[in-house]
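Hello again, I could really use a second opinion on something today. I've dropped the whole record in just underneath, so have a look.
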Amino acid sequence: MQRERSQYGTGGFRADGWRTARACGPNGGNCVEVNLTSPNAVGVRDTKRWTGDVRLAVSPGSWQAFLGAARSGRFDGA
């Protein structure tokens, strides 16, 4: 019996759902990838270590709070 490969990777994230910022460029650089395909968590990983498991998973609410703080400049100069 042959097993079907799931479209979802580790942690319930779609394997094709990883995204980087446009500023990251085509070579990846020192960037993070974000995956928003799970209804229960946001996955975050390093572009240089894209193979393997999710490195960080946070709740959607925590992710939105982080984005709001970053946009407001809370981490500037930190």
In short: The chain is about 15% helix and 20% strand. The beta strands are 18-19, 32-35, 42-46, 56-58.
